[in-house]
Amino acid sequence: MSTLKRAFLYTMRKKTKTLILFLVLVTISTFILTGLSIYKAADDSALSLRQSVGGSIRLELDENNRKNWQYQQAAGGMLVDYVGAPITDEDIQKIMSIDGIKAYNGLGDGSVFAKDFSFISGFSFGAGSDYSRLPSVTDSEYFNFFTRKAFQLVEGRHIKEGDDHVVLISTAIAEKNALKLGDTITVQCCYDSGNYPDVSLIIIGIYAYEADNEFNTTSTDKRNRLIIDHKAMQEIMQRDVIQYDNGVDFYVDDPREMERIASQIKALDLDWDSFTLTMDNSAYEAVASPLTAMQNLIIWLIVGCVAVSVGILILILSMWIKQRRHETGILLSVGISKSRIILQYTVEVLMIAIIAFGLSFFTSNLISQGVSDLIFHQVSESQPLPEIELPDDGTEYLDITGQYIPYDTSNVETLESVQVTVSPDYLLYIYIFGTLLIAFSVSASSISVIQMKPKKILSQMS
User: Fold this and answer.
1) How many domains is the chain partitioned into structurally?
2) In this predicted model, what pLDDT tens digit does every residue of 279-330 receive, in sequence order?
3) CB–CB of 299/39 below 8 Å?
């Protein structure tokens, strides 16, 4: 009689044992398949979140390097000039050639008076203090106030590369001055030295900014922020070329790749005496902590489930194989090899497992989403609320206490749950891993009996 036939007849004859082992295998495979599915779903959610929240690497001027400054005695005091190398468009294109960078946003800086409209007035420190800082951008959609949802574009469009003398204004400025899309406003650089012209800007977008506006001067009130293109900044500041005073932000596809991308940028032939490189994935780290904790927990649950499964299978099979000493002795006495006997025991369990593993696909589908929601909510409650500093647009804006103004995290993109789908592909892993697990468990359970001699086995039977 073949090994396969003996295995089949035994499982049919021992219906109670077969049923018990079937239920055990269904339970084990269901929990492992559920764990794998939840882990994969959490990983997919983390990838989606990383791509939507993103991260950036900033190339900026190294103003801490004293070699980049020139000090000259002048009438009335010391004249200080920055003489380090500027960031050029050629430098930007070198960095953009690196794989994993999806976009960039250059940042200029200036300060202006409002000529034919009014800013939202704040605390005044005397005549000439009613001005506002303004950033120039390559692509305002990637300006950090928009990426972190501090600003929300409510009308019009964003500034794009190639725009010329355009501006985004706040709803507060628009309402105070009865301005709308297509209107023109005029500004003038507020610096003391230089003969600066009036510059006209066309309004192409209006953004909303909701925040506590107490203790603000006119220049620090974010509602007064005029966001403009680089060509407009060049004329306002009367410069020969476009300057990226506040550096250039390079946005990566996946924040987990930031270390690799940063190392490749540092390997480029740039003037590193004049530049520094900083990485920012704080937004992702803040909102993704529940997912990270969930994935770590799932890994431990899977490892624990496997360890417990091995222990339970070995315990059950050890008891059953010991009960089959007489049968084992007879098989050995008639010339059946020990390896074929172990193979028979393995085949018996695999026959049951084939059906049990298949059923686990359906049972896992029934419970996986509920288990995922339970774990995610438990993990989320144990994580601190995300705290992200308000993005800096040229200076470190502080509140009256001298501390960073906290970012309103109510608009930060977060996950409410992880949507789990049990894929048939995962079932293949269960069959492969389950077969190895069964082979190991049967072998470990059979050692004590198989090592015995046939005559000794038969003599111990009553």
Assistant:
1) 2
2) 877 666 666 667 777 778 888 888 888 888 888 888 888 888 777 777 776 7
3) yes
